[in-house]
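ASSEMBLY PREDICTION REQUEST
Request ID: AP-0331
Submitted by: J.K., bench scientist
Number of chains: three
Total residues: 919
Priority: normal
Notes: Please return the full assembly, not individual chains.
Input sequences:
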Amino acid sequence: MTLPLFFQHLANGVSLGSLYALIAIGYTMVYGILRLINFAHGDIVMIAAYFAFYGVGIFMLPWWVSFPIAIFLTAVFGIFIERMAYRPLREVPRIQLFTSAVAVSFLLENLGIVIFGGRPEAFQRPAFMDQTLTIGGAKVVTYTFVIIGVALILFAALLYVVKYTRVGVAMRALSKDIETTGLMGVNTDRIISLAFAIGSGLAAVGGILQAIKFPQINPLMGVMPGLKAFVAAVLGGIGNITGAMIGGFLLGIAEILIVAFFPTLAGYRDAFSFGILILLLLFRPTGIMGEVEPEKV
Amino acid sequence: MSLLNLERVVKRFGGLTAVNEFSTTLEEGELCALIGPNGSGKTTIFNLITGIYEPTEGDIAFDGKAITGQRPDTIAGLGIARTFQNIRLFHGLDVLENVLVGHHLRLKAGPLAATLGLPAYVKEETEMREKGMELLESLHLGELAHEVATSLPYGQQRKLEIARALATNPKLLLLDEPAAGMNQTESRELMDFILHILDTFDLTVFLIEHQMRVVMGICPRIIVIDHGETIAEGAPQEIQNNPRVIEAYLGVGDYA
Amino acid sequence: MDMKWNRNTILTLVALVVFAGFLYYAQNHFNYYVLRIMNLCAIFTIFAVTFNLIFGYTGQFSLGHAGFAAVGAYAAALLTMSVAQKEANFFLKPILPFLANIEWHFLPSLFMAGIMAAIVALIVGGPALRLRGDYLAMATLGFGEIIRVVFVNTQRLTNGSLGLKGIPEYTTLYWSWGAALLTIFVLKRLVNSSYGRALRAVRDDEVAAEALGVRLFYHKILAFVVSSFFVGVAGGLLANLISTIDPKVFLFTLSYQIVGIAVMGGMGSLTGSTIAACLYTVFLEVLRPIESPFNIGSLRVPGVPGMRMVLFSALLLFVILFYRKGIFGGKEFTWDGLFSVVKRLGNRLRKKPPAPVAAGDEEVER
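STATUS: Completed
Returned structure:
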């Protein structure tokens, strides 16, 4: 393993990690407030990619118009799902809520197959993201920088919102104690919708960037990244946004480097994330930054 | 030999000390009450005894055996049964079935025998059902045997939860605020009920109550705790006039 | 529960004999296509009923069913395939030596399929069942996928992504429905026993159950392993029915379908699961034409591939949101129940006022 090659892999890992982190934040925000694992979150990624794809392909919009529109539409879609499939079940035992999420995921995937066709489609990379640069012997395609850059900017923005704005405080309050916060005059429904919007928006960015990175989209493209992003969220401490980011990066880097150093294990790269999940859930379910919540009897 | 022994038990949750060097001994056949203001650590002590929490420090011994840090199901098998502050009946099971779950831990036949319907299992099941019905009838719940457990009126649900706990054939019965949510008449009925089972079954009863009035008349021994520590212990008269007790309750709730 | 020769037992036996006769007739007279559907009904019945044991009765949401079915399918396939078929299949890399020369009869192969699945379930359940609710679901999903990924990558054991072809078609109605009825019987007995009550107690309130001396982990594992045994058998039946294994069949989407069937049939109702499984299989076949172009009158409607699953998943979501208890909602079929329904229908047809309902008259039996 030469140094330039290592940097190539590292860059690859960080960009993959950015994708996982972007998606993981959505999981963690929803879980923090509703204590629900939004099983359908991974499929949101897919929806965004297709919105962007059709924006460029059918509506002939330039990518810098199509992508933001796709992100916006996906955020709205996220709110829609919450309204339709989760809000009616809020008073119900959590496991039924989860079943609903599974059903939504299943439905979205099947709708994707029917509406978008089961065959993968090629995704067009915007020209400036498609240049291969050679830096110190390492070959890196420009989209890598875009992905990492966009992710970092969005993270910073999100952290600012969560820490310093009123809605951010409201979200944090809801995740600590949803009942009391509601009683204090916070419009719970609106904040939850906002959380879903932000989470879905970020996942949408992740989806579009994913489409750029592997330039191919298919209706099931969100499932694996979704599951891995979930592992990342748990790794970072579910409910903790910074944790989700850290977890995402760690997981992406680890996945790429393990395959780089042990190429015979390449087929198992997906299983690797699940292995981490299981170890986490057994030995440190609170993750890196999580807090232990004792159950009140 | 004392039945239950808590030796300087401490329970900390992060920075919060819920129970602070609590010690006590219960003798066989006793009826003892644990009272104190809300948040004083009463339920935590029960949870420590029954194994839901593990003590940060200290030891708990039951019937001569150390039970510190054992699992709840093991402790139940040794003869400690409990009810909960918020009634926890099994909503998917009817009244009799709730009680029968209490018998399950004494079942000797394995799942294979049960599935195959082997005579050894059938015999045990029949016995369990008979004993279950007897128990229900002795507590005047017999006709309700096949009702959905959670459809019963609140008072009956309480009795059912106690019946279910009795089905495990315990030596020690822990009752967590059994009179919660009841008015004066209902509370008195419940207390008579508890005295009745104390007579009928060979039991020791340790009960938590938040309202002093409820236990004053019937419990020969009362322990008062506040902030996880014992502040007074003795017969009802001594407790009533204890200045520390009055201070702990001052402005909070009702006292005789 | 005890084998008294009462009316219900006799009725059940008669029904079984009639059903057996029907299977005999069907096996000898129905065409290949219909027989395949009937076999699939049985296989999916086993899938749904066993999921119900884990989730409906014990409250553990496992998304790993597909993985255990895969274990059973590969086990049965590798044991029943002839030496020649194995050689033909494993052309990329030779099969592991100890499997190359084995060729078993169907019954021991199916049994082994179940055992292998049960063993894997023990390994998976050990860690996974210590988790609660949604985490358990993610963990079992993960395990299910790990199993599939392992199978795809162990070329010498499973022929990897090439899958297996030429598995002997041993599955007949007797095998599939025999297995299904056996599964239902075993599960019913288990559920109606003290252990069944313990399982439901674990489902309803773990804290209270544990306080009554019920060993949580033991009972969860019990449900998990027993279920997985039969899932493995069903996987084996599937392999020897369609005579090929494509690892993609055992994607997590299969687990979703099973969840969907069980939820629609009603959690906590074995009857519901059976009926839902059969309806699902039949409707999937009946609706197959809508996925290729067809005619309504003189209108040519383009087929929509994948539409059946859209309908199924939409229906599932609908049921979850509005009809939460599913079709049967925790009630089971009983002869008494059937008679009381018939009686009430009869009264209504004759315009008689309904008779006052006594406590024992209802369909409910748990």
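REVIEWER COMMENTS: The first helix of chain C runs from residue 7 to 29.
SIGN-OFF: pending second reviewer
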